[in-house]
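Retro notes, structure queue

What went well: the backlog is down to a handful. What didn't: a couple of records were mislabeled last round, so from now on we paste the full input next to the output in the thread. Example, using Ribosomal RNA large subunit methyltransferase H from Capnocytophaga gingivalis:
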Amino acid sequence: MTIKLLVIGKTDASPLEKLIEEYKKRIGFYAKIDIKIIVDLKNVKNVSQQEQKSKEGALLLKEVAENDILVLLDERGKEYTSVEFAQYIQKVLNTGVKQCVFAIGGAYGFSSEVYQRANHSCALSKMTFSHQMVRLFFVEQLYRAFTILNNEPYHHQ
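Corresponding output:
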């Protein structure tokens, strides 16, 4: 299975980028992972939040195939412990799907079209984090999930 992480806008913090790349490399021992950056929209000063979400949503949905599982990283999504998230990943692996897409929305979240297409949503926390930090937190939790599934000593209970 391929795991694809879709993100709106590139990160400009090189220390975060280095950590993200490190976890991406580690995840590569368990599954193929691809991080796809959807370029920020230009000239959004005169665009409503709704219109911006809609345009970003259309770009995001272009990256999702019909048979993909789409999971939104959304503050209103289901909260998991690390072990529960690992179990969710195992459930997805068991479906035999070729690709599971996790998406991080733009500054205003997801459009209604993206919510309608999504198979699931999960929250990393009830707190709000910058989109750059969410990327790092997610890839670390994904790596942690694979180590839990493989009974490796990374996660302690």
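Agreed that this is the format going forward. Reviewer comment attached to the example: The radius of gyration is 15 Å.
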